[in-house]
Design a protein that fits this description.
alpha/beta; 8-stranded mixed beta sheet; UDP-N-acetylmuramoyl-L-alanine:D-glutamate ligase; 6-stranded mixed beta sheet; globular; 2 domains
């Protein structure tokens, strides 16, 4: 079977299964040998910002000459993006071999698509003689598949409302779930200024050293660049700033976490930060004479951060689409100050919805904001660009990963792949 055949099969076996728990997975992991993916492991949880923290950690460790394995989710364009070894995405052949081993080991035990992906990542990492592994939690923390591994350092980037059906409807409950990645006596880095008390209480129960943004570590922008003041007296003066589209809080959390495992060299940190790239996060493109911003802000917390980043002085024409389990109403309210019109697009996937369904959910939300619904993503992009050109505005594509990925591919095809990133 090809990798695509495998992925289609996994999606069909478990089309919408959400079976939170580690017992089944642990059995299969033990049958595979229960190998640790690397001698040192950092696990990253959080409502938003996980991807930025993981990308920064990967860049920092590789700049120090370490061999790093990374697993993230979801992917933007290709499944292979979920497993990166030493800066290279895993090949189809390697993933297939890992899937075949997992299939033999699981027997009659059911596994979800995500669990197959995580076990494959662990298998490929364990085969690669890594120095460090960086594991991104997919959902919550306590019952997430990556929590099979005892992390040397835990990072919680932020806690807010998302996936309420599985994690809870308030920050304290969600915080307890995310604090499930903590291990007794092993440090926790918190990337937000005001974390839920439930996170701090769990850290106290486990006698965990806590490093909090704004208390134990700080990021200060200066005329010469930036300064990081970290716990354990780890201070760095940097003659550069990371890409403006990445939040400094996430960069600082990654610096603090990395500094707990090794002594960072300022010149290497400079190289890592200046080379950072994370597609789909306030990603600017200039295509067909128009300015485009693509962002996978797929919940209100992420969208609020995006609006704060791009400001409200300039207005945009938005292409917007979300999965049906997202708070699209609140997201549209947050978008309203910076957009002149909204083009509603369908979102592919089992959790997706048509533009008509989305429009129905938004019928009473910001009724003064002009909006149109479209049968496919390309139609929404074409209409949005036409609308934007007429008003001399840029285009903001925001929402689900599947929407942003489709828009990115369409922009590539529109300019033969030569657009300005």
């Amino acid at each position: 079977m090809t990798l695509n055949d495998w992925l289609v099969r996994l999606e069909r076996l478990h089309p919408q299964e959400m079976d939170l728990g580690l017992q089944r997975l642990r059995q299969v992991f033990e049958r595979l040998g229960a190998r640790r993916p690397a001698p040192q492991v950092i696990t990253v949880a959080g409502t938003n910002g996980k991807g930025s923290v993981v990308a920064t950690l990967d860049a920092l460790f590789r700049a120090e000459g370490l061999k790093v394995g990374v697993t993230t989710s979801p992917h933007l364009h290709h499944f292979n993006e979920r497993i990166v070894i030493a800066g290279r995405v895993a090949s189809d052949a390697d993933i297939i071999k890992a899937f075949e081993r997992i299939e033999r080991a699981r027997g009659s035990i059911s596994l979800t698509y995500f669990e197959f992906a995580i076990l494959a990542a662990f298998e490929l990492m364990a085969d690669s003689d890594l120095d460090v592994a960086v594991l991104e939690v997919g959902l919550g923390g306590r019952l997430d598949a990556v929590n099979l591994i005892d992390a040397d350092v835990a990072v919680i980037s932020s806690v807010d409302l998302d996936h309420e059906a599985w994690l809870g409807s308030d920050r304290e409950t969600i915080g307890r779930e995310k604090a499930g990645i903590l291990r007794r006596g092993r440090p926790l880095v918190i990337g937000e200024l005001q974390p839920p008390q439930s996170v701090l209480d769990r850290a106290d129960e486990l006698e965990v050293p806590v490093y909090r943004a704004g208390f134990d570590f700080h990021w200060v922008e200066t005329t010469a660049g930036a300064m990081f003041r970290g716990g354990r007296e780890h201070h760095l003066e940097l003659g550069c700033l990371p890409p403006a589209r990445l939040l400094p809080s996430n960069i600082a959390a990654a610096l603090q976490a990395a500094s707990l495992l090794l002594e960072l060299v300022p010149a290497h940190v400079h190289d890592a930060l200046t080379g950072l790239d994370l597609p789909g996060r306030a990603q600017h493109r200039q295509v067909m004479g128009s300015d485009w911003i693509l962002d996978v802000a797929h919940n209100p917390h992420a969208l609020a951060a995006l609006v704060a980043k791009i400001g409200t002085e300039r207005r945009w024409v938005a292409v917007f689409g979300t999965f049906r389990d997202k708070r699209a109403d609140r997201m549209l309210e947050l978008l309203e100050p910076c957009v002149a019109a909204v083009h509603l697009a369908p979102t592919p996937g089992s959790r997706g919805q048509s533009a008509a369904e989305l429009a129905g959910r938004l019928s009473e939300v910001v009724p003064s904001l002009p909006r149109r619904q479209h049968g496919d993503i390309e139609a929404a992009l074409v209409a949005a660009r036409r609308d934007a050109c007429r008003q001399a505005l840029g285009i903001l594509v925001v929402g689900s990963f599947t929407l942003v990925a489709a828009a990115d591919r369409w922009l590539d095809s529109a300019c033969g792949g030569s657009a300005t990133p």
